């Protein structure tokens, strides 16, 4: 079974939205902890972060949101996704400990490439620009699975699945047996299916954030459409 | 600096993975260029024949009558500010790396103009990101960039100033990294940028040290420069860092004092001293001078502050405006508002022998000043 990862920005409604995503078939939920200057993000997630910050979502409130989400989703993996600035301010080790206590399965730091802060165990990202040496380095350091950035760019929907993904999957497979989940630029069921034919899982962020604004029902239906699409992939 | 791009605990590479190979490539290209005599010879030649180096040292006798206060005249450099030193060097470097497209951020527009200028000179594609607020207050520089053939892309969210322009330039670079060199304008950003920019601006310190010695047969007691991101200051300081008796004084804008009131935080790819709240969220800076209106600062400055080798103070908008008016009326030199901050503090010093970097000229600021 291919894995389906849904990204949601932390907020008051997020625990309920995460539960809806799980009912729709999500296998893992990433919870965005907003940062004022998110370099890896395109306009949708940047604006969602601005909104979350204006509603008072800070590291502590995001950890509370994580903990409330944990109560609603059982054992499902939950992974905060954020930026170095938040960990620097909160304390790197303290963040790891408190996130774990609040129910986090691991953590993703979008601007912390393999090699920086090696003491923080986290899911590493690799990109089409990563050399084979860096793929090997990131795979050796990553926590459970490797996050494949499908394209050279920031987060956000694209009209087509990145043609760079196939080659990245091939190169990553050559250096690791770990699961490979592909994210960035995947928004439609067709793209989800095509990505799942290559990778072991897919991550959907910007479009999920947009649909989440329409409420839990809409999100559940959208996640279900992605689930059905990736389940149609013949193993 | 250590091999991992750290100044003490500052610096580093806090960037998405997509950029890491490009930073490795840039670092390798930079190291190769530095040890290549033809690179330095090309820069020297461009400096002399295109940029107008060396720039003179001028004594400001009427502005500071009780001192031997000298101005390093980067306002006389082609395009009107020290920014060209860095832009020329990085443009030559970009071509060595085979990059034909340049992106840059700009605040006051001086770095944007310098970048647009070198791109015109070398036939490179040029895209400059600029906050809408800065486009309004530095209109002449927007028009200059456009005349030079650059595309100026407005940034219409957040503070609509240099912070957001830098973020958007980095996002562009992430997207077009295979073809594009990010020509960063200050000694900020991920390693190796802070080192590259310092080395390309170190010509300021080298020249002015020789010139001061020639004028006074001694070294200055204080070297002062304004600090936004800190590139003119780090270039000046580089020339005097080993002269232990020389005080190094950086002057920030009062409401953009990343070193004076900031915390250790991560912004635009590096750990430095940043205006950030207790959660690490970046706080807006405010300054009449667009070039100092930035909540971060180069990591080497944070390190120099902590080590005590350099001191950092601030000047208010009004103090800068007063110094701006005085230098204009008393010396016949219209400074940019950025170095006017350094002038405001330098004239009050106890010391007699003072060197100030006049990092740029004030034409771009006329509308802002006349509106007051």
What is the topology?
The complex is a heterodimer of chains A (235) and B (372).
Chain A lengths: L2 E7 L4 H10 L4 E5 L10 H12 L4 H15 L4 E5 L1 H7 L1 H10 L6 E2 L15 E2 L5 H10 L4 E4 L15 H11 L4 E4 L5 H10 L2 E4 L1 H7 L3 H16 L4
Parallel strand pairs in A: 1-2, 1-8, 2-3, 3-4, 5-6, 6-7, 7-8
Chain B lengths: L5 E2 L2 E2 L8 H15 L2 H15 L5 E3 L8 E6 L9 H14 L4 E6 L3 H13 L2 E7 H6 L1 H9 L3 E5 L6 H14 L4 E3 L10 H24 L5 E5 L4 H8 L8 E7 L4 H4 L1 E5 L2 E5 L24 H9 L2 E6 L1 H15 L5 H10 L6 E6 L7 H5 L2
Helix pairs in contact in B: 2-3, 3-4, 3-8, 4-6, 8-9, 12-13
Q: What this model shows, in words?
A:
The complex is a heterodimer of chains A (235) and B (372). Chain A is an alpha/beta fold and 235 residues long. Chain A has one domain (3-231): Aldolase class I (TIM Barrel), CATH 3.20.20. Chain A has helices at 14-23, 43-54, 59-73, 84-90, 92-101, 132-141, 165-175, 189-198, 206-212, 216-231, and strands at 3-9, 28-32, 78-82, 108-109, 125-126, 146-149, 180-183, 201-204. The model of chain A has no long low-confidence stretch (mean pLDDT 97). With 372 residues, chain B is α/β, with parallel strands linked by helices. Chain B has 2 domains: 7-44 and 83-197, Rossmann fold, CATH 3.40.50; 53-81 and 202-371, Rossmann fold (3-Layer(aba) Sandwich). Chain B is 43% helix and 18% strand. Chain B contains 14 helices and 14 strands. In chain B, strand 1 and strand 2 form a beta hairpin. Classes of the chains: A alpha/beta (235), B alpha/beta (372). At the A-B interface, helix 2, helix 4 and strand 5 of A face helix 1, helix 7 and strand 11 of B.
């Amino acid at each position: 079974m291919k894995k389906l990862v849904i990204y949601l920005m932390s907020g008051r409604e997020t625990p309920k939205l995460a539960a809806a995503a799980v009912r729709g078939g999500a296998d893992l939920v990433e919870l965005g902890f907003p940062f004022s200057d998110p370099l890896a993000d395109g306009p949708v997630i940047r604006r969602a972060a601005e909104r979350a910050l204006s509603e008072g979502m800070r590291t502590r409130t995001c950890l509370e949101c994580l903990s409330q989400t944990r109560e609603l989703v059982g054992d499902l993996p939950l992974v905060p996704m954020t930026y170095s600035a938040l960990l620097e301010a909160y304390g790197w080790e303290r963040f790891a400990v408190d996130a774990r206590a609040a129910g986090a399965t691991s953590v993703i730091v979008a601007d912390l490439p393999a090699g920086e802060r090696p003491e923080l165990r986290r899911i590493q990202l690799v990109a089409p620009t990563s050399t084979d040496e860096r793929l090997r380095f990131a795979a050796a350091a990553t926590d459970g699975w490797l996050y494949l950035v499908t394209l050279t760019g920031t987060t956000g929907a694209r009209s087509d699945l990145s043609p760079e993904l196939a080659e990245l999957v091939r190169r990553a497979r050559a250096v690791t047996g770990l699961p490979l989940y592909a994210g960035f630029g995947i928004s439609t069921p067709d793209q989800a299916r095509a990505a799942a034919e290559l990778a072991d899982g897919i991550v959907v962020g910007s479009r999920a954030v947009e649909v989440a604004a329409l409420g839990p029902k809409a999100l559940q239906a959208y996640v279900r459409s992605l689930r059905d699409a990736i389940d149609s992939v013949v193993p | 600096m250590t091999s991992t791009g750290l100044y003490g605990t500052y610096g580093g590479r806090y960037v998405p993975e997509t950029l890491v190979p490009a930073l490795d490539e840039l670092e390798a290209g930079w190291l190769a260029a530095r040890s290549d005599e033809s690179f330095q010879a090309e820069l020297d030649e461009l400096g002399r024949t295109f940029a107008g180096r060396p720039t003179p040292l001028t004594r400001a006798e009427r502005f500071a009558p009780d001192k031997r206060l000298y101005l390093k005249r980067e306002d006389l450099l082609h395009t009107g500010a020290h920014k060209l030193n860095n832009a020329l060097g990085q443009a030559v470097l970009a071509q060595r790396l085979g990059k034909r497209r340049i992106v840059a951020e700009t605040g006051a527009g001086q770095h944007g103009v310098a970048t647009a200028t070198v791109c015109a000179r070398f036939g490179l594609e040029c895209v400059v990101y600029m906050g809408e607020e800065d486009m309004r207050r530095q209109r002449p520089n927007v028009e200059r960039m456009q005349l030079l053939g650059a595309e100026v892309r407005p940034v219409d969210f957040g503070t609509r100033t240099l912070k957001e322009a830098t973020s958007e330039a980095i996002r562009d670079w992430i997207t077009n990294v295979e073809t594009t060199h990010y020509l960063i304008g200050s000694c900020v950003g991920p390693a190796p940028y802070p080192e590259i920019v310092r080395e390309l601006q170190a010509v300021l310190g080298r020249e002015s040290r020789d010139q001061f010695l020639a004028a006074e047969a001694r070294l200055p007691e204080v070297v002062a420069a304004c600090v936004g991101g800190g590139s003119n200051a780090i270039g000046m300081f580089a020339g005097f860092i080993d002269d232990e008796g020389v005080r190094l004084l950086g002057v920030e804008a009062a409401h953009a004092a990343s070193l004076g009131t900031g915390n250790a935080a991560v912004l635009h790819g590096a750990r430095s001293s940043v205006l950030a709240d207790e959660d690490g969220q970046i706080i807006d800076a405010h300054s009449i001078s667009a070039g100092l209106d930035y909540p971060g600062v180069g990591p080497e400055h944070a390190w120099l502050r902590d080590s005590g080798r350099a001191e950092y103070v601030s000047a208010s908008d009004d103090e800068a405006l007063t110094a701006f008016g005085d230098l204009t009326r008393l010396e016949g030199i219209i400074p940019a508002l950025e170095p006017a901050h350094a002038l405001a503090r330098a004239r009050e010093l106890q010391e007699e022998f003072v060197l100030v970097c006049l990092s740029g000229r004030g034409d771009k600021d006329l509308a802002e000043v006349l509106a007051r």
